[in-house]
Amino acid sequence: MDLERAVNGDSGNPAGDTDSLILVDASDREVGHMSKAQCHHGRGTLHRAFSLLIFNGQGELLLQQRAQSKRLWPLYWSNSVCSHPRQAESMEVATRRRLQEELGVRCPLQFLYKFEYQAQFGTAGAEHELCSVFIGRCTDSISPDRREILAWRWIAPQALELELQSSGAERFTPWFRLEWARVWQDHRSAVQALQ
Q1: Is 131 a catalytic residue?
Q2: Domain assignments of the chain as residue spans, ordered by start
Q3: C-alpha to C-alpha distance for 135 and 55, rounded to whole angstroms
Q4: More confidently predicted of 1 and 58
């Protein structure tokens, strides 16, 4: 399909900058809590996060273009949903909550793997996350949150691979480039089983 759709409406500030996120060590043991804004200050403080890769019945991946109001990587293309569990919130509850809040859908999710990364966005701040990656298949109509998502599109994995190997790769968030490379290399069969 690979058709880009803009989300109508005004872009306000993304909600949740004051949410208390879960600080972790490299083994994903909880070591404290900090506001979302503070977690992304400077070089970032390691915290728990997740990325959702949502596919349709044709095996296409839903990409979102981040809202212009985002502090980090505004207007970059990224995975279907990326966020954080809040203090005292399980990963299962958090992933379902954000899928509904950002895209207006529900679907079963399958955990694939977890990885740590750090990425700097100039002087605006950084991501330093221990990120759990999930995949899911959804046939419902998408209803994106305009405060989070400027535009969205479905893309076939092979077309995405071509984009990521071209000069357009820098239009994608650094965490998405890392996770997609691993998903397509090590978990392709799980993605193909969703069709």
Answers
A1: no
A2: 4-8+16-192
A3: 8
A4: 58
Residues 142-191 have pLDDT tens digits of 999 999 999 999 999 999 999 999 988 999 999 999 999 999 999 999 99
What is the rounded average pLDDT of the residues 91-110?
97
Out of 82, 102, 148, 179, pick the active-site residue: 82
129 in active site: yes
Distance CA 173, CA 66 (A): 9
Separation between Cα atoms, residue 44 and residue 183, nearest integer Å: 25
Closest by Cα among 188, 130, 148 to 11? 148
Which of 129, 138, 148, 179 is labelled catalytic?
Answer: 129
Whole-structure pTM value: 0.90
Model confidence at 5: pLDDT above 60: no
Q: Domain 4-8+16-192, what architecture?
A: Alpha-Beta Complex (3.90)
